[in-house]
Here is the input.
Amino acid sequence: MDDKILEAIVAEVVEDYQIPPYIPESTVIRAVKESAARIGALAEDVDFENDLTARGLTKSRAYYVINHIEDEFEKNYGHDIRSWQLGREAKSETDKNSGS
Here is the structure.
């Protein structure tokens, strides 16, 4: 993930989840990096700029990390994660079969 995308996702997390100003930006950055690494490990070649589901999962997980409940994330988002993975796999197979 390049710095431009990282900065954008950090700003979205702060705005979307109304992260209080007493939470240091470095904490949010670490949470986003950790979350992007975890989401990226769940599928190959994740594009956090254009894959809005991956981006959303990353932001949601970052919120869980910031609130020290990251162990709850996969339990609560497991269905969404599997659906995202399956959709990526189906698209990949379709692209392979169509010669793209």
Notes: The CA atoms of residues 32 and 62 lie 5 Å apart. The two ends are 25 Å apart (CA to CA). Helices lie at 3-16, 25-41, 52-66, 70-98.
